[in-house]
Design goal:
The complex is a heterodimer of chains A (316) and B (451). In chain A, 58% of the residues lie in helices and 1% in strands. Chain A is an all-alpha fold and 316 residues long. Chain A has a two-stranded antiparallel ribbon with strand order 1-2. Among the domains of chain B are: 157 residues, Alpha Horseshoe (Leucine-rich Repeat Variant); 75 residues, no CATH class. Classes of the chains: A mainly alpha (316), B mainly alpha (451). Chains A and B meet through helix 2 of A and helix 2, helix 8, helix 16, helix 19 and helix 21 of B.
Chain lengths: 316, 451
């Protein structure tokens, strides 16, 4: 039995050793395989990358160039924009010039307006002065009786003064006023038509102009004044055509026929009312003999050949 | 009242013409005096009787009838509407075609009063075909007729752009522009107001008005002795200036700004208001234009307005105009600040009296803010530092913090005038903008001084 166990132990030992050896071999083999796989992958990957590398390098180069160009472009645009805006859009010097021009223009305008205002004021003053002058003259005319005579010195001509007053001279110059003609004023007309634009009231003459009471009747075969006045102031009786206004129905009805007549007239000659009408229009044409540079010659119309009665033989 | 209207009614249909005329005149005067009487007349249905026989009547009756219509229409839109519904507009157009200038004047006046109230009535007037006749009226030699026609055109065109376009299409602008040099003051008032009502609606209409070559002539109106002519002239220029920068440029180029500034200087009261607004509009468009306003010496009159005027809305307008001038760049803000106007603006803003009028406060505040955001002129900012409320303080301190790090002389001045002390006294929440500004300022100085 010890030999059996010995043999078993040796057998198992041998199995172990063989096992171990085989495992080692397999392990070495696997390791080898792995190494080979890695090698293949290494080479394959390197190959792929080397292929792509060119593209990557190109892209990177391109991007770098673009960046550079962009930088340069930005620089150019920056300087250009600054220049352009400063020159045209926000031109400082042009603005200053404009403002100076504006102030100069303003001065001119102010000056002119001042002149205009002064002119207006002067006109107003002149008008006032003229009005005052007129009033003064009118008053002088009214008070012409205050003028001094030889005997009695007037108010404005005191003996203690060296020279007469202004008013005195004015009074001397002015013409006395005459009596104003009496105007007929219709009280009713006044009330109705007190508007500024309505100047003439309708001519309803209710009372006749009054003649002076103690008037002597004028001599001669004159007609009775009442008759005359009645004839003169007979109320107007306008014809039917005049009485109707422009917009009334008969007038409107007449309109189409009027228009038709205007449109187709029978003849175009001017209407001559009287037969001798045309004769008036016959112009006298002077003959060439008698018309001169300075007008008609008197010979032939005003006088003929000169007459010398002393030379006549017939009566002697 | 006591049945007068009923008594007058049969008289209107009397045979004798002068009775009719007198009755119509009486009605007109009654309606003119009181609203209720006018309403009574309309309710009694007299208007159709008044109008029905109008075309056949003589000119005195037409004038009186136009007077009655105008007296009724002037009180309220409803009465004017009643008149339109009676068909009075056609009759008034017939009156406008009449030869007598008095009749035309009455008709034009009636149209004016009707068109004044609202756009629908104006449209009714335009639809009746009145506008070409009014333009013809303007060309007539009588001054009163011209006045009334101009005022009617102004009333028609003020409501909407379409109505203004209708007036323009009738060729009114050329005739109105020809009448500007006329010496009569009331006529000038009406003409200028008509042109400004036309120009205010749109850029095209304003350009049409400008093309009529009003420009140097309108400036003479600004020198007129009549206050309202000046006001209307300034209104016209304002309406033109407010649309586009090109139109404002035109006004500046023709010296209009100088004339407006002189006009502001010579008037008092509400007459100044359109002139102030013109300057504001011109300056608001661009910085070159506001520089032009500054160069034309525009700021001193505006300061004077701010100080002198008692009315709130004029002060608000002046503050707004100054804000528009100063808000573009530091140069502009410096010019405004040099004129010593910032303390006044601050006073307006802080003043408790003007606290009811939000507009004044709001405009003062905005103007101040706009100017301060660009102001680097420190001597002007310093007095404000002592008095300002917190909302303004933020901006002031911000400006200081922008300038002080760079300018040593300014720093020295700031310390000597006690500004630094004031800054320390301000308490701000940490992390807010104000605290950052304060920190920036403190960093400019060495530690000992800060403490």
């Amino acid at each position: 039995r010890a030999i059996d166990e010995d043999r078993k132990i040796k057998y198992e030992a041998a199995v172990k050793i063989q096992r171990w050896f085989r495992a080692c071999r397999v392990r070495v083999y696997l390791r080898h395989l792995a190494k080979m796989a890695v090698l293949i992958q290494k080479w394959w990957r390197g190959y792929l990358r080397r292929k792509l590398f060119k593209g990557i390098v190109e892209t990177a180069y391109y991007i770098k160039k673009q960046e550079f160009y962009n930088e340069m472009a930005v620089r150019i645009q920056k300087t250009w924009r600054g220049y352009y805006i400063r020159k045209y859009i926000h031109n400082y010097y042009a603005l200053k010039k404009y403002l100076r021009a504006v102030s100069v223009n303003n001065e001119l305008v102010r000056h002119e307006l001042q002149e205009f205002a002064e002119m207006k004021e002067n006109e107003e003053k002149m008008k006032d002065l003229e009005k005052k002058e007129k009033e003064k003259k009118y008053r002088a005319r009214k008070m012409h009786y205050l003028l001094s005579t030889e005997q009695i010195p007037g108010i404005y001509n005191s003996p203690f003064r060296k020279s007469p007053d202004q008013m005195e001279l004015l009074l001397q110059k002015s013409k006395p006023l005459t009596h104003r003609k009496q105007q007929v004023k219709n009280p009713v007309a006044d009330e109705l038509y007190g508007w500024p634009t309505c100047k003439e009231p309708p001519a309803f003459i209710k009372s006749l102009p009054l003649l002076p009471a103690g008037r002597q009747k004028p001599q001669g075969p004159f007609r009775d004044p009442a008759e005359v006045l009645q004839q003169r102031y007979k109320p107007v009786e306008p014809t039917l055509r005049v009485r109707e206004s422009m917009y009334s129905p008969p007038a409107k009805a007449r309109e189409p026929s009027q228009r038709k007549e205007w449109k187709d007239p029978i003849h175009d000659n001017e209407f001559l009312p009287f037969s001798s009408y045309h004769k008036k229009y016959e112009k006298y044409e002077p003959s060439l003999f008698k018309s001169d540079k300075y007008g008609k010659e008197a010979y032939g119309t005003k006088y003929f050949r000169e007459v010398y009665p002393k030379k006549w033989i017939a009566d002697k | 009242n006591s049945g007068v209207v009923c008594l007058l009614r049969p008289l209107l249909l009397d045979v004798v013409p002068s009775i009719r005329q007198t009755a119509a005149l009486a009605l007109g005067r009654l309606a003119d005096y009181d609203v209720e009487l006018a309403e009574a007349i309309v309710k009694a249905g007299i208007l159709p009787q008044l109008i029905c026989s109008l075309p056949q009547e003589n000119r005195y009756y037409k004038k009186t009838a136009a007077f009655v219509l105008r007296a009724i229409a002037k009180h309220s839109p409803q009465l004017a509407q009643a008149i339109v519904q009676c068909g009075a507009l056609e009759m008034l157009v017939i009156c406008l075609e009449d030869f007598d200038p008095g009749v035309k004047e009455g008709a034009a006046w009636a149209f004016g009063y009707i068109a004044r109230h609202n756009p629908e009535l104006s449209q009714a007037v335009v639809d009746a075909g009145a506008v070409p006749l009014l333009v013809l009226c303007i060309q007539e030699p009588e001054i009163a007729l011209k006045r009334i026609a101009a005022s009617t055109l102004s009333d028609i065109s003020k409501h909407s752009p379409e109505l203004a376009q209708t007036v323009v299409d009738a060729g009114a602008i050329a005739h109105l522009a020809q009448m500007i040099p006329n010496p009569d003051a009331k006529l000038k008032r009406q003409v200028l107001s008509a042109l400004s009502q036309i120009a205010k609606h749109s850029v095209d209409l304003a350009e049409l008005v400008v093309e009529a070559e009003i420009f140097p002539v309108v400036l003479t109106c600004l020198k007129d002795s009549d206050e309202y002519v000046k006001k209307n002239g300034a209104t016209l220029i304002r309406e033109i200036a407010k649309h586009t920068p090109e139109l404002s440029q035109l006004i500046v180029n023709s010296g209009g700004v100088a004339a407006v500034i002189d006009c502001i200087g010579s008037c008092r009261g509400t007459v100044r208001l359109p002139g102030i607004m013109t300057l504001g509009y011109v300056a608001a468009h661009s910085e070159n234009l506001s520089m032009a306003v500054i160069v034309s010496k525009g700021i001193p009159p505006l300061c004077v307005c701010l100080l002198e005027e008692h009315e709130d809305h004029i002060k608000a307008a002046a503050a707004w105009a100054l804000g528009q001038i100063g808000r573009h760049t530091t140069e502009h803000a410096r010019h405004v600040a040099v004129a010593n106007v910032l303390p006044t603006l601050l006073d307006i803003f802080v003043d408790t009296r003007s606290s009811e009028d939000l507009k004044t406060k709001a405009s003062g505040f905005k103007a101040l803010k706009n100017i301060l955001q660009k102001c680097t002129y420190l001597p002007a900012l310093e007095p404000l530092l002592h008095e300002a409320p917190p909302t303004i303080m933020k901006h002031i301190i911000g400006q200081f913090s922008k300038v002080l790090p760079h300018d040593s002389k300014a720093r020295r001045l700031f310390v000597t005038t006690g500004g630094l002390k004031k800054v320390q006294e301000i308490q701000a929440e940490p992390g807010s903008l104000l605290q950052e500004y304060i920190n920036t300022i403190n960093n400019c100085y060495p530690e000992e001084i800060v403490r």
